[in-house]
Amino acid sequence: MITTAPRGTQDVLPQESYKWHFIEGKLMDLARRYGFSEVRTPTFEHTGLFDRGVGDTTDIVQKEMYTFQDKGSRSITLRPEGTAGVARCVLEHGLLNNPLPLKLSYLINCFRYEKPQAGRFREFRQFGAEVFGSQDPAVDAEVIALVADIFTTLGISDIALELNSIGCPNCRPAYHEKLRAYFAQHIDSLCPTCRERLEKNPLRILDCKNDSCKEVAKGAPLGIDNLCGECADHFASLKERLTAMDIPFTVNPQIVRGLDYYTKTVFEFVSTSIGAQGTVCGGGRYDGLLETLGGPSTPAIGFAVGLQRLLAVMENDGASLGEPPACDIFLASIGQGASVEAQKLALRLRRAGLHAESDVQGRSLKAQMKYADKLGARYTVVLGDDEVKTGQIKLKRMDDGQVEETTLEALPALLCEK
Ligand code: ATP
Ligand code: MG
Predict the structure, then answer these.
(1) Are the C-beta atoms of 234 and 136 separated by less than 8 Å?
(2) How far is the CA of 134 from the centre of ligand 1 (A)?
């Protein structure tokens, strides 16, 4: 047991980690170009934050949270998502006093007790971004443009934007009544959780993963047909802006998303290439969240991209994931004196920004060269007593065996140019 990672978790092995650096570097760079600053919040929060912030009728809160009592008898939860913690941080530090809109991004690990399967883990990584302080549909369009740009920049073509509007506190009560009336007729087909949701939050039933609930939900009245004038205008304006920016989308009236406090815009980016868990990104507007957490009424919108799913789509699409880092040079040595010089030279090369290795195990020259080969070193140099005395060395390019004469002194600068 102790030599096996817990179910639903993953090791990122050394030969894979460059892919994560590549993806995360691109994400952070794009977010920067769109004006987002990174925020880092704790891995765990008070459980109450998620009860309130995610909503106590959601699957996340009802079934998926890693909650425990700490030694001071506080109820603590490992974050199942990023938005609640970021919203808490914004309120705690008065970040809304900055010029608005406030744009924040984050890269985090999330924890959900789910049934592990392809694309669904118990610990997973998310990139997310949130904008606070504007209810203008232009902001919705900008946030969606960022996500669309992420996929384009990463070379993903097999992904589609699905959009919906789920209304606001003005239009929702009447819509909830219609949903209640509809689901009450089908109550026998609903799972026990959804029967409870019927009174409290019938919208949640539309997001249930239970097959029988899903079947019933197909015939339910649609939020999009029940929007108030303001929400309908907002949605129309968003669609207009997306069209103006050439960002293709389809309206999917079934999308409701997993948080209780979503209002108006909700969206997903879905891939068909990675099986059942095809939603790579989910997002939406949550104009009610900050007030729910005790802050001032503040409109906001955000999204989160699941990085394991993103990586799977990229691998499926044959998109570039960068290169595994290569060893620039291996410094072989013969004898104790040369070995010391090789180590000194490695130090200079590393300080010049190169990946240099020298023999640190007293191996034979043959064994050293074999090792250099396994490392995939681009160049090698052999240092013996003569090289140390004269400073003259032979730099060998490994892929074609070409040899170049140079000096110990000139090597770092020469290699930096290659
Ligand atoms: P799903 O409907 O697949 O359960 P969700 O609605 O619970 O997704 P969000 O809370 O919106 O997902 O999270 C945003 C993104 O995070 C998802 O689109 C997905 O890419 C990723 N994600 C969510 N849960 C998991 C998980 N258990 N394992 C891996 N990635 C996940
Ligand atoms: Mg989920």
Answers:
(1) no
(2) 26
Q: Can you give the pTM of this predicted structure?
A: 0.92
90 lines ligand 1 (CB under 6 A): no
Backbone angles phi, psi at 298, to 5 degrees: -140, 115
3-state secondary structure of 356: strand
Whether 179 maps to a domain, the answer reads no
Q: Is the CB of 83 under 6 A from ligand 1?
A: no
Mean pLDDT, rounded, of the chain: 94
43 and 76 inside one domain:
yes
Work out how many domains the chain is built from and give that number.
Answer: 2
Based on the fold, state whether residues 244 and 310 are members of the same structural domain: yes
**Is residue 152 domain-shared with residue 54, that is, in the same domain?**
yes
List of the chain residues with pLDDT < 70? 258
pLDDT digits (tens, 9 = 90+) for 78-133: 999 999 999 999 999 999 999 999 999 999 999 999 999 999 999 999 999 999 99
Contact residues for 275 (Cβ-Cβ < 8 A; gap 6+): 118, 119
Domain assignment present for residue 25? The answer is yes
